[in-house]
Amino acid sequence: SEREQFEKQQGWTIKKMTPVDKDEYNPDELEPSPIQQEYAPVIFAQDTGAHVISLDMLTGKEDRENVMRARELGKGVLTAPFELIKTNRLGVILTFAVYKRDLPSNATPEERIEATDGYLGG
């Protein structure tokens, strides 16, 4: 499957974003993301955020809503402040959709969804 090929290429399994206490967070113990039509795993992060690599952003409620809004609107979408994983700090994530091809400025949400190739967030 496409997922299996992707995971083999990355060298890790796509993980479900499961809320856990920051002191108990261990990415190696997280459950695999359930089988679904699409995934949005984190594939790159700075060293200070490397613990989020492999997390599927579509399995977290707020994260999923943020990703879906970004791809439908064609604009950057900012989350509300939330507690960052493994820290005592509040943070926000600004998410942008990346499209397979150029879209006209008046593209419909359906056209944007169809053309989505991935996401950038930070």
TrEMBL record:
Its main location: membrane. One of its GO terms (molecular function) is kinase activity. This is Histidine kinase 3b. It is found in: Membrane. InterPro entries: CHASE_dom, CHASE_sf. Gene3D superfamilies: CHASE domain. GO terms for cellular component: membrane. It comes from Chrysanthemum morifolium (Florist's daisy). Keywords: Kinase, Membrane, Transferase, Transmembrane, Transmembrane helix. It comes from the Eukaryota. Residues 1-122 form the CHASE domain. One of its GO terms (biological process) is signal transduction. Residues 1-33 are annotated as: Disordered.
